[in-house]
Specification:
By secondary structure, this protein is α+β, with helices and mostly antiparallel strands. It is about 25% helix and about 20% strand.
Length: about 775
């Protein structure tokens, strides 16, 4: 996901030096290892991975797919602080209950709590003049993170902070020094990135409970979150204020409301706070608290969060040669399960896209659908590991369709953001439909996909009129049109399954619209005008962020965006040989993208950009021309150089799990080039074995023999004891359970090279 929020940082790279120093410090994974059982898979998760540079991942405590992501917010703002935290920073201004992970736009950061000592100004302050607000410095030496747990020491106040969470409740534990003015600031003004408060409300219901709400406008245009918080110790005093002055009483409705609870504390005294959230009401927040975290046992809550993560991580048990590889793999798997996140209450109430409260839903409602990114690999991974959640992801999308009249594009907190291009929900739903995922209305799913693709908005009227989107009608026309072709092809496959031949022919034809953008004279896809002529001048290297014919890319990268019909693209190039020559050139081509290129075009190998999603399937296209060894070369290079177990271990925006999903699947040795045909193309595994729990008491076991950095080429595969020569495996073969054995070698082999063994679009 992207569409960058290029807000400015007042400190720019003030903290880069800290990051460089931190490179020399012992890894946080060591702290993690000492804190969990040896048998626990969470020992291999290092949440610091991806928090540096442009990874933008969430730092803090949560449970898999939880509504709450409680964690620190730095003082700095800007693109590299989209999650509120960047490893290069050394400041904290609060601990918010909601965060995004790996987006290119900042939002959320709701309901910030900040423990303090003494009288402080209700402002953030600056690093050079901390007394102008309540900001505190911290050190990574006094910071620990593992799944479901986060801790840090606030230097300014000598306060220890520990955080954990359930699905809908955050749990804060603050250890104070001796003080007569120990406090906790509840800040309803603060948000992250584009987020701004529109109306906030806070009230002290008793001397140890508060409640309220925060309505805000940002990337999510109309976000509403309600909360209920309870404290382990009664307040000595509780005051409310806006940004101008303290107000009388203990209740305040304002655009920017604050509350301050004060206490007397003894040395090392612990004060705990539980904060339950709800998209529906304060009463529902109380209900969530009662159901999920009635007591005050912090240690047990941490253990429960760890167990929840271990359960989900344990759906794939792998072995690898090095601890670093294990950390990289399991941290990537962890990152795929931060979102989509629950967006509803324990009684199944939720707030819909129509802004209405929907009571007692028949499914669990979710949000944070970065679909332009995640339809490519994260959702195909979920169909393997999370089929029940996949059904509810689809149910959520179908409810959104019924409420807003179209399937979601990029949905956040009940809001359609229309971020990015295409209709990426369509291939996700089609994939679930075609794979036989149970638990959603298949007829409604077909209706939603078809009707969404027959709308007129966002360039679709041009697809129906011309068969393509003219470059003189809208920006990003090539990217938009090629993404629509992927969705159209997916609808056609569902129509075929439904037995609707007319719809199949119509949408299958639209799925070939990529041909309209292909200029045989240049060998690239490019902008085409309404009169049929090509847009000029043309430079295949040029990229102008959100202003030319491509979305965060150039012609070199978008020419390959035909995962639904690779054989058709091969034909456009004139056959296997010219296709292969051009594909080889992609990884070698050097050129200037221009000063206005998107920062997402990162992780470059030639013009292949692994830091951005449209490139993610390209390395696996060699299998379609019978050269799987070239796929092995490229995916090994990417896994070995563009993913590490360091804080800067991602080469680009995490994109809500997609970057990590690519790694998880590729590390196991296969990847869904076509996101909707149930086919996973083999590459080159970097793990030595894997046991995938596919449900129904079945496992799919992978045994990778003679694997090493040198032995990266598949020599032979057997499936359940029988020779297997195809360069792909079907979803159903994995879900049936069984055993797959790969034998690896140092030289390319003839395995997977025969025409009959190559992947096809319609499997």
């Amino acid at each position: 996901m992207k569409q960058k929020a290029l807000f400015k940082s007042p400190f720019k790279r003030l903290f880069v030096c800290l990051a460089l120093v931190a490179c020399m410090l012992p890894g946080s994974a060591q702290q993690t290892k000492q804190s969990v059982r040896k048998a626990s898979l969470t020992q291999y998760v290092d949440p610091f991975i991806g928090t540096g540079l442009h990874g933008h991942v969430f730092m803090g405590a949560n449970v898999p797919f939880g509504a709450v992501q409680v964690g620190p917010v730095n003082l700095s703002t800007g693109w590299d602080w989209c999650s509120g935290y960047n490893y290069a920073d050394s400041t904290i201004v609060g601990f918010s209950q909601t965060h995004l992970s790996g987006t290119g736009i900042g939002d959320l950061g709701d309901i910030s709590l900040m423990p303090v000592i003494g009288k402080v100004k209700l402002a953030k302050g600056t690093p050079s003049k901390p007394e102008s607000g309540y900001v505190s410095l911290f050190s990574h030496k006094q910071e620990v993170a593992r799944p479901g747990y986060y801790s840090v020491h606030l230097k300014r106040y000598n306060i220890g902070v520990e955080l954990t969470a359930t699905k809908r409740v955050s749990f804060h534990k603050y250890t104070y020094p001796k003080a007569t003015e120990a406090g906790i600031i509840i800040n309803l003004e603060q948000g992250i990135g584009w987020d701004n408060p529109m109306e906030t409300y806070i009230t002290a219901e008793t001397d140890s409970t508060i409640s309220g709400y925060r309505f805000s406008k940002g990337w999510a245009n109309d976000q509403r979150i309600f909360f209920y918080a309870t404290f382990s110790k009664p307040f000595k005093n509780f005051t409310v204020s806006d940004t101008t002055a303290v107000k009388p009483g203990r209740t305040l409705k304002a655009r920017r409301a604050y509350g301050v609870a004060t206490f007397n504390t003894a040395a090392n005294e612990v004060i705990m706070v539980k904060v339950a959230i709800s998209p529906v009401s304060i009463e529902n927040a109380k209900l969530n608290m009662k159901a999920e975290l009635a007591g005050w046992n912090f240690k047990r809550t941490v253990a429960n969060a760890d167990a929840a993560w271990n359960k989900e991580l344990g759906k794939v048990v792998v072995k690898a040669d090095s601890p670093a590889r294990m950390r990289t793999f399991y941290t990537a798997l962890y990152h795929t399960m931060i979102a989509p996140s629950v967006f509803g209450d324990v009684d199944k109430d939720y707030r819909g896209a129509d802004k209405k409260v929907h009571k007692n839903a028949s499914f669990t409602n979710y949000t944070t659908f970065s679909l332009w990114d995640t339809y490519r690999a994260a959702h195909p991974l979920f169909t393997l590991l999370q089929p029940e959640r996949t059904a509810d992801f689809v149910n959520t999308m179908l409810a959104i369709y019924q409420q807003q009249g179209e399937l979601p594009v990029w949905h956040l907190m009940g809001n359609e953001t229309y971020c990015m291009v295409g209709c990426p929900a369509v291939p996700v739903i089609a994939d679930a439909y075609l794979k036989g995922i149970k638990g959603f209305d298949r007829k409604l799913a077909y209706e939603a996909m078809k009707n969404t693709m027959m709308l007129d908005g966002r360039g679709l009227k041009y697809v129906k009129k011309y068969g393509y989107i003219p470059a003189d009608s809208t920006v990003e026309s090539v990217a938009m049109g090629m993404e629509y072709a992927i969705a159209d092809w997916s609808v056609g496959q569902v129509a075929k399954k439904e037995g609707n031949k007319e719809d199949y022919n119509y949408f299958d034809n639209r799925g070939k619209a990529y041909k309209k953008y292909f200029d045989a004279s240049t060998g690239f896809v490019r902008g085409r005008m309404a009169d049929g002529s090509w847009r000029t001048p043309f430079n295949p290297f040029s990229s102008i962020h959100r202003q030319n014919d491509y979305t965060e890319g150039n012609a070199w990268q978008y020419t390959w965006l035909v995962p639904q019909d690779v054989e058709g693209l091969i034909h456009l190039f004139g056959g296997d040989k010219p296709f292969t020559t051009k594909l080889d050139s992609l990884f070698l081509a050097k050129g200037d993208l221009g000063a206005d290129a998107s920062p997402d075009i990162s992780g470059l190998i030639g013009q292949y950009a692994h830091g951005n999603e449209p490139s993610h399937h390209i390395t696996y296209m060699y299998a379609y021309v019978g050269q799987p060894w070239k796929t092995a070369d490229k995916v090994r290079e990417i896994m070995n150089t563009l993913y590490t177990d360091r804080f800067d271990g991602l080469c680009g925006n995490e994109d809500v799990g997609q970057m990590s999903a690519w790694y998880v699947l590729s590390a196991m040795g296969f990847y869904p080039v076509n996101p909707s045909n149930g086919c996973y193309v083999f590459g080159s595994p970097v793990i030595n074995s894997a046991v995938i729990n596919v449900g129904n008491n079945k496992t799919f076991t992978m045994d990778v023999r003679n694997n090493s950095n040198v032995n990266k080429y598949i020599q032979r595969i057997t499936l359940n004891g029988k020779e297997y020569t195809k360069s792909y495996i079907r979803y159903q073969d994995i879900m049936n359970g069984g055993k797959l054995v790969m034998e690896m070698g140092a030289k390319p082999s003839s395995w997977g090279t025969a025409p009959a063994d190559r992947p096809q679009s319609e499997m």
